[in-house]
Write a structure and sequence with these properties.
single chain; about 220 residues; alpha/beta; two-stranded parallel sheet; 4 helices
Length: about 220
């Protein structure tokens, strides 16, 4: 009986120490992950606003909702306390085929897209994941012969299409003859998710900081 009690006590102590260790490890790694995520978001904001080098970003959390998410945007100013606005950034959320696609969006003071970056997606490999595909200019022969040119700084072709566009020109098309965002073959839902979410985000941002005095409470697809 005494041996059983000792064994139970030992197992309980081991379980307690293990749980405590896991808790401490989680707290430490969670804090590190949060810092990493914040740093990644900062890098993404500066990437989608290439003209805002050295800018100071001011966060604004609103009571408005876009696609079921609270709308938060950042104002890029020329410096601390400066009244000069270089642009804005926000994260757009679009329901894709198998995930919610999160896109960091940068726009200038006229609400034209300065750049976008897909920051999170779990779409179908080979289809929806092509929203992040970088189209190489190297030929097959260059690759096989070892003469391929390193393409540093190349951007995904799908995302490049958004540069310079306002919300009125953010429509998915299936022909290059039409003015719009060319859909990814076999991944129209993913293409629509990204495009529609950006269009709704710009509409909300314009209503808040633009000429419309009262922003809508919610913007949905």
């Amino acid at each position: 009986m005494r041996d059983s009690l000792q064994l139970a006590g030992t197992l309980t102590a081991i379980a307690f120490v293990a749980s405590l260790g896991l808790s401490v490890a989680y707290d430490n790694t969670h804090a590190v992950k949060e810092q990493y995520d914040l740093a990644e978001q900062e890098r993404a904001r500066r990437e989608v606003l290439p003209e805002a080098e050295g800018a100071v970003f001011e966060e604004t959390a609103t009571d408005s909702v876009v696609s079921g998410k609270p709308f938060v945007y950042y104002t890029a100013r020329a410096g601390e306390g400066s009244a000069e606005v270089l642009g804005y950034t926000f994260v757009a959320y679009g329901k894709g085929y198998s995930s919610t696609i999160q896109t960091m969006v940068g726009v200038d003071s006229a609400f034209a897209v300065t750049g976008i970056r897909i920051v999170s997606q779990q779409e179908t490999p080979g289809l929806g994941t092509r929203v992040q595909e970088i189209a190489s200019k190297n030929t097959l022969w260059q690759v096989l012969s070892g003469k391929a040119v390193e393409e540093v700084g190349a951007r995904p072709w799908f995302q490049v299409q958004f540069d310079g566009r306002g919300e009125e020109r953010l429509q998915v098309v299936k022909s290059s003859a039409d003015d719009g965002i060319m859909a990814i073959t076999g991944a129209t839902i993913s293409s629509e998710a990204v495009t529609g979410s950006i269009r709704r985000g710009i509409a909300m941002l314009r209503s808040i900081v633009g000429a419309v005095p009262e922003p809508p409470a919610e913007v949905t697809p």
